[in-house]
Amino acid sequence: MKKRLMAILMAGILSAGLLAGCGGSSSASSSDTAEKDAAETTEAEAGSDAAAGGYKIALIQQHQTNAFQIAVTEAAEAKAAELGVELTILSADQDAAKQISQIEQCTSEGYQAILFEPVDPDGLGDAAQAAADKGVIMINVISACTDWENHGISALSCGDNVTAGETEMQHVADLLGGKGNIAILTGPSGDAGGLQRLEGYENVLKNYPDMVQVVEPADCQWDTASAQGTVESWLSAYDLDAIICENDGMAVGAGNAAGADSGIIITGVDGTPDGFEAIKDGRITGTVSQDGGAMAANGIEAACKLIDGETLESNTIITTNIWIDKENVADYE
Question: In the Cβ-directed half-sphere of 50, how many Cα atoms lie within 13 Å?
Fold first, then answer.
């Protein structure tokens, strides 16, 4: 009798343990694997597990090394918490092969949707298609994959980079009165967003023949230190009236090199906190905000709707461009 009672008690203990294991969130095991294989992993957990209706979504960023990307991360985490989504955030560290591996890994781990910002817009289509073929909802954010609609990608959430470039350059043209020596700092060669911003610059410059590029555009990889070093060398060789930068990080670098209230018009794109600070202290003139955080948040909302079986009003979700300078910077901090 004692043996039988002991067996019943042991069975009850084992059952309770199994029930506790089934009832917990699945995020720990999947994200632990992601941390080991992909490093640079952060999680935003909504406090409800998959059994309670939470969705398992991954966001794979190009990198997490500047203020724009940090804003993207924070907005994605906030939206995931709001919607009750289990979110894993990975950084590809500007490595296209690593990003493909991360997509494959997330697919094998059962993520229902993957948001990604492509490191290589031309080289990620096959990986996106393979994941979509296995039932994963693929959402392209921030910068577009080449021919994205024909590679299994359900939606694109981004800014209008051509318009952002046009807005930035038009403000420079207005401030210069249509004439002056200018120079341009670009992001990584081949980056879709950077190429589109450059297209916007060129669209405006066609109307201002007296705005002269006195030096070839410099690829500074979105990096503040690289931009600062480049502009320091430029200032010793050229008389510049304006420096147009494809992101705020490079604009801050240019502003650091020129110094506060240098008289050189220095502009950026993104509307980041470091950009706002540089506007306030006179190191840069202005920035075009595209709200990268909203791009990520909108992408998560779109993913949830598609997982629910809903149809999107549009599979292209565009944020608006806003010019920010000393006159209105306090409204956007």
Answer: 14
